[in-house]
Amino acid sequence: MSRHEDDSEALLRLTLAGGGSAARRRLLERHGSPGAAFAAGPRGWRAAGLDDGQVSAFAAPAAAGLAIAREWLAASPRHHLIGWDSGDYPPLLRHCPHPPLALFVDGDPALLWRPSVAVVGSRSPTAGGRDNAAAFAAALARAGVVVASGMAAGIDAAAHESALGQVEGTTVAVLGTGPEQAYPRRHAPLRDRIAAHGAVVSEHPPGTGAHPSHFPRRNRIIAGLSLATLVIEAAERSGALITARQAADSGRDVFAVPGSIHNPLARGCHRLIRDGAGLVERGDELLDALAPQLAGTVRTLREQLGEPEQTPPERSLSAGGGRDPDYQKLWRALGHDPTGMDQLVDRTGLTTAALSSMLLAMELDGRVSVEHGRYCRKG
Questions:
Q1: pLDDT digit string (tens) for 205-258?
Q2: Per DSSP, what are the bridge partners of residue 253?
Q3: Which stretch of DSSP H or E encloses residue 253?
Q4: Phi-psi category of 49—alpha, beta or left, where left has phi over 0 and alpha has psi -120 to 50?
Q5: What is the pLDDT of residue 230?
Q6: Measured in Å, how far apart are the chain's first and last C-alpha atoms?
Q7: What phi, psi does 231 have (nearest 5°)?
Q8: CA dihedral for 354, 356, 359, 361, sign (positive or negative)
């Protein structure tokens, strides 16, 4: 078994060990890789803070759960397990409170590095609320911003559907179940479309069903992945308000759409606005408010990858003598036909994280077009 296979198997076992993630993250940080963490043995595991139940489960995971997860990961090249130790772990999520140890991803994991905005709200919205969700999601998607939500009924589903309906729109769904499941079940076709053209994400392994405690945890991932959270129609006691609070706890902006004082589903939004959330009525207002964060995200990604900001992509893309060899390599790998991330990794030898940052910068500079997670030269 190769080192990569050792690490993949050890990460899967550590993920299935369950319990609090802080000690398991600490174990990875101490030993540098999942394989090395597993080799540390029970004494090393306990020294990192794993409790007896986690130690037992790490040593000998439940056979059925391990088999289901292995089978799911092997079933498609679009199935991924991204651990805390990986360079592909989403940077915004890494810096939120209580980040998950690992993410199961069905789709394009590079989307988790692109700027995203969470669009959340009532499961039983008014017709106007559904229209507002579709309009804001469309504006975000057309601007190249990923629309993130939880694939719930109502506002979530309207936002996902609208993003998928845009020519170059992308969306990420974070689930409170295993990544292969749809909740509610009638959203199975929507889940499949998101997986095919965006990304479906869960911290829960395949085979995990819905449980009430999973959904507040899901909400923290939605908030943690996103630059900002937009709430459209929410009652005073609403899961959307939990997402908004978690976004604020992560230092992210919160926006809300106001409504009629006679609409019970506007009361949560009005409360957020009273507490300091930004009031927005149109998509362009939201994009204007987000402009500094969008630019800052590109700068941060470049810094994390060690790229000098004074070398803009257009200097690196000329046919002769561009300054950055990685950008030149990527430019040569891109054609005029849409190319998926996996192909670009194969052609360039660069990591998904590095390519995602570079492609984002090139897209914002107008040199690259992206449609449903596939990239090509623009013009």
A1: 999 999 999 999 999 999 999 999 999 999 988 889 999 999 999 899 999 999
A2: 228
A3: strand 253-257
A4: left
A5: 98
A6: 45
A7: -105, 125
A8: negative
